[in-house]
Amino acid sequence: MGPSWLQWLLKHLLCLPGLAIATVLLLLALGVRGRRRRRPGEPPLINGLIPFFGVSFQMQKNTFKRIQDYQKKYGNIFTLQINGNYFTFVLDPFQYPLVLKNSKQFNFSKFGNEIGRKLFLLPKGTPYMMKTIKGSYKYLQSDFLDSSSYNLMQNLQRIMKEQLLQAKNGEINQLYKFCTSIIFEATYLTLYGKDPGTNSGEVIHELMEDFVKFDNKFLSLLSPLPTLSLRAIRNIQKKLIQYFSSERISKMQEISEVVRVRQILLEKFTEFQDYERGAHHFAFLWASVSNTIPASFWTVYYLLQHPEAVAVLRDEIDYLLQSTGQKKEPDFNILFTREQLDGLVYLESIINETLRLTSVSSNIRCNKEDITLNLGNGEVNLRKGDTTIIYPPLLHYDPEIFEQPEEFKFDRFVEDGKKKTTFFKRGQELPYFLIPFGSGISKCPGRFLAVLQIKQLVILLFSYFDVELIEDKSQQFKNSRMFFGIQTPQSDVSFRYKLRC
């Protein structure tokens, strides 16, 4: 070990508890013995200084900046060692289809199943079983979404009416806390229905608090190192799963079609324990709100920083209200169909621009075999068992594609009054230009519901209230999600809202 090793051990290792120290020493020993070498024809390999861990610690500090630096040094395809695994990044957007449209050689299920097992304790099921359960996702798409859209709007209006209608002279709240409370309760009620118990409000609040604790630390469940907080997060994980018992769900009223179908399917497979069914429900709820909450926060935050965007948005909403014969009455009773919401091109552009700026979602595939990719300007060999990653944040911040990519431009996805769907790089139309929800087999099935949630929240908030930020400071990303979902803010921000009508 060189001096850098001794410095690392003194700085990090001695601060860990005994079990963690033993684990680190074992992993280091394995890493030293199994240090990998690059074969001819393979992408550049960055093992990092620390065996087994590779570049893990550098990546955690600022994933985007680190990958950007590697791209400048090694080009558009390279392999990183991270916690004993090897990840090959494919960064040229014209080469994305080589991976995303080749499910025979690039497999998502292995990675998805491992994540589900670690984060939500999902049981291992047969391919038929998992395909059957995934069939319920059709109720989150197309015409099946209409009833959920209606129920969601009703729940949002009732919750906001209860919480906000007193704000005639102005109230102050924390924006992230506000979005969490509104989105979580409205989504839970829309999907899982109403608890007939007298203390249902308290139960939802307690569930939300546990959910937030889990969401703040969920990535620690993927770490190879035992940490001091791991026991606490595992206890919360188990508590959340136990909440979704079959007995509780059977008592819920006005349950959504998608959850009702999922419950029937889960009951059909008798080899599942009730605890394992609860794990599926917990994972479904987490997927429904974990990224919608920060996406809602950033959408409102960027709007409040750009009054010109708010003005255009309100004009668009007012026009839709007039065309549908509705008025903004103090009773919070407006309703739009999903098709009408889809016609709000500026609102959709605002949300797309927010997702472009804040999404760190990556498309992750496991190499099922040794693969030779024809890149057009040469070939590259990928190893069986490695992981291949499409990392869209670099695409989303490419100045050749998006002028001034660090800036929020509310009309970036509007052209001649219609949705803009073509973007170019090197003079060629891009096969993908915005990928916040994954792609192909890993594309988020709840993306339509998520966008509906954001649209409805924004419409209600800016139609009925004058809203302003109190703290005039630039909000930074927490950089804690690495390759998963929407960035969360480093800190909350205060805002003031006052009833308009």
Give a description of the structure:
By secondary structure, the chain is an alpha+beta fold. It has a domain at 32-122 and 362-397. 49% of the residues lie in helices and 11% in strands. The chain has 20 helices and 15 strands. Strands 1-2-3-9-6-4 form a six-stranded mixed β-sheet. Strands 5-15-14 form a three-stranded antiparallel β-sheet. A two-stranded antiparallel ribbon has the order 7-8. Residues 19-27 have low confidence and may be disordered.
Shape: globular
Segments where pLDDT lies below 50 for 5+ residues? 19-27
Report the average pLDDT across residues. 87
Radius of gyration: 24 Å
Structural class: alpha+beta
Largest sheet: 6 strands, mixed
What percent of the residues sit in helical stretches (DSSP H or I)? 40-55%
Query: Which strand-content bin applies to the residues?
Result: 5-15%
**CA-to-CA gap between the ends?**
70 Å
Spatial strand order of the main sheet: 1-2-3-9-6-4
Number of helices: 20
Pathway: Lipid metabolism; bile acid biosynthesis
Main location: endoplasmic reticulum
Keywords: Endoplasmic reticulum, Heme, Iron, Lipid metabolism, Membrane, Metal-binding, Oxidoreductase, Steroid metabolism, Transmembrane, Transmembrane helix
Transmembrane segments: 6-30
